[in-house]
Amino acid sequence: MRLFVSPGSPGSLPVLAAAGRARGRAELLISTVGPEECVVPFLARPKVPALQLDGGNYLFSTSAICRYFFLLSGWEQDDLTNQWLEWEATELQMSW
């Protein structure tokens, strides 16, 4: 897998924290890219963070990437985790 992050991107920090939880469960390459670099080939606009899965598919929602890493780490998600992810996506990222 390959995780694309950008300095200053509000979604990068939670994704990196979630990736740390899944450390050792799968091989992960972390690439730092510019905020205007298109890493997901089928999106019209640049979007980071993005996770390229081993099969070539992409996840480009911060919440979806975090959920993927949580599942990979074996951490069972609960309502509080989902609430945090939704708050981060709707409140925190909107303020950036």
Automatic annotation (TrEMBL):
Annotated Pfam families: GST_N_5
InterPro entries, alphabetized: MARS_N, Thioredoxin-like_sf
Domain Methionine--tRNA ligase N-terminal: 1-74
This protein's name: Methionyl-tRNA synthetase 1
Protein species of origin: Oryctolagus cuniculus
Lineage: Eukaryota, Metazoa, Chordata, Craniata, Vertebrata
